[in-house]
Amino acid sequence: MLQIAVTGKPNVGKSSFFNAATLSEAEVAAYPFTTIDAHKAVAHVTAACPCKELEIECHPHNSKCQDGVRLIPVELVDVAGLVPGAHEGRGLGNQFLDDLRQARAFLHIIDASGSTDEEGRPCEPGSHDPLEDVDFLQHEITMWLYGILKKNWDRLLRKSLSERMDFAKVMAEQLSGTGIMLEDVLEARRGIDKDYHHWKKDDIIDFLDALLRIAKPMLIVANKADIHPAEENIRRLKEKYGEVIPASAASELALTRAAEAGIIRYQSGDPDFEILKKNELSPEQEKGLLYIREHVLERYGSTGVQEALNRTVYDLLDMIVAYPVEDEHKMSDQKGNILPDALLIPKGSKPRNMAFLIHTDIGEGFMHAMDARSCRRVASDYEIKDGDIISIICR
Fold first, then answer.
1. Angle at 291 between CA 286 and CA 296, to 5 degrees
2. Whole-model pTM above 0.85?
3. Which DSSP string corresponds to 309-325?
4. Mind listing the pLDDT tens digit for each residue in 73-131?
5. In which order are the strands placed within the sheet that holds 319-325?
């Protein structure tokens, strides 16, 4: 399952984001992937399920469908709070860095209100500049990777020469435990003109910065967006970094719990909610809900939690959703379940790529594929589109 790390300093709302993102999946408790361990749980990204378009009733197996919205599971890791110097072992640095190894992307939660200092200690809103908190995370991870490479640098160079191996392959092997692949190393290498033998510390760090942006991209989530002066800080963050998601994890948590209690109608990512049981609300609860509507939903369009998850998977990781079936006529598996699975695949995937993602045996036995909407065979070089329903024909 695709893994995303929720990272940031202590006290920025990182765990609130994690809890808000995973709480709504609690009812899928019978599925084997629901609870993984103490700091891992399942959240979901959303996609339009073809059932609405095709006017059929789906029977999801690996995901869930809510009124035509498919909820597709991803694994979130709530990483230990990070402080400057983590790569040297400060705070829970070693635990933090170990938790990042298999994550495909980072959701960097920052306190947009500036109410936590550089160490994560609470302070008055506006007394700390959240822009200072963005770069240090990548720096800590870069320096962690630098430590791995630097202590073995001379040995790696000798191995490359003696075994006549491309140094990129040698580096990829050294970093394989971090989830970084050879193609990531090769792409990052293109930006540096010097020969490896002449690289200095700054060259290695520049290379690792580029490598991280490719192998483990990061999305900035500006949490506590409802607290002054967050709105101005978010504007400044967007000016400097571009993609920034304003968020209020506490608001998402409150809305999701109210929805589960049947007090409101709300689904994660919605731009508003409907109060169903106003007579059961205390004056404080009603005031709290109206505050969320005015200061979060009307101001930013959503709480930002679902948007952050979707942006990470679909934009940062450039993935799409495809629906594999066995019977293209019934759009079902062999048991008759209609549209049973929603599969996250890299954009540009071909049918054979998709077959291997389903199962190695299916990939090895691949013959051709069918478009279930038209019941026509698709070419082997066909690029699967978002929302495609594909049947894989095997030997």
1. 135
2. yes
3. HHIIIIIIS-EEEEEEE
4. 999 998 877 666 656 655 544 565 667 778 899 999 999 999 988 888 888 899 999 99
5. 343-346, 319-325, 389-394, 366-371, 376-378
* Contact criterion met (CB below 8 Å) for 286 and 278: yes
Give Cβ neighbours of residue 96 (< 8 Å, ≥ 6 apart): 7, 79, 80, 81, 82, 86
Pairing mode of beta strands 35-37, 40-48: antiparallel
Distance CA 33, CA 74 (A): 9
Q: Could you give the C-alpha distances from 206 to 111, 153, 200, in angstroms and in order?
A: 27, 16, 10
List of domains in the chain: 3-128+218-250+296-313 (3.40.50.300), 140-214 (1.10.8.470), 323-394 (3.10.20.30)
**What is the token pair recorded at 139?**
């720096």
Tokens 């990483």 sit on residue: 79
**Under 8 Å between Cβ of 121 and 91:** no
Structure token pair of residue 47: 């996609």
Asked if 142 contacts 155 with a C-beta cutoff of 8 angstroms, the reply is no
